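Table 4 source record.
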Amino acid sequence: MDSDGSLNILIVVQARTGSSRLPDKVMLPLSGEPLLVRMMERVKASKAATNFVVATSTDDEDDIIEELCDDYDFNCFRGSLENLLERHYLAGLKYNADVVVKIPSDCPLIDPAIIDKVINFYVRNKDKYDFVSNLHPPTYPDGNDVEVIPMPVLKITYENALLNMELEHTTPYIWERPDEFRIGNVLWETGLDYSMTYRFTIDYREDYEFIKAVYDELYEENPLFGLDDILKLLEEKPELKKINEKYVGVNWYRNHLDDLKTISPDDTKHIEF
């Protein structure tokens, strides 16, 4: 914490090139630049965060991400390939963070205003909550994921989490223990829930084609187009939403329903590939 009492709030964007479903997705082009660059443009538009870092692995195949960070003057941290919890914790230590904000690199349509809304909610209520996100329960379209973790809580998690799922996804150890941690959640102010009906994240080729189409339509006029702009576009051109419609509601929960106590089968979708 600075001498004036302000928090060092570090947004950590986890990124890697390896992906069984869509390899090198962070390097795919969007409006003339790699996806990761376009995403960092949106993340760095946050007014509530004080620092930003791309956290990738130490694997040789991710050297290209560090090179990209050098080219675009992004901070870069390298850590474990599989243990994302460790990667976030050590990045927080390196950058002397008071608070780490976890945002995955598969959210290239994330709205900076939503990032700030979740962070500011935490800052206003930091004495009330140990963890704040917009995911428990989610209401925004999938792909606007923001999780705020104070460093003392991240340290406890790092020292105690054991399950592979907890290490791979960083935060389940916290939100799966509402009896131990005070969990805060930010709901979409519209009162709507699009979390299982709109998909703005990228895991599959069709997701990329959808996101590329949105950028092609909106980026030139306003590089920092927001959620309302996207929804207006989809209302005007409903054919775009159909591009990745078969994957709406598909998320990582489906592989861990037997382990997750706070997640129900209704929170995910199974699909045969």
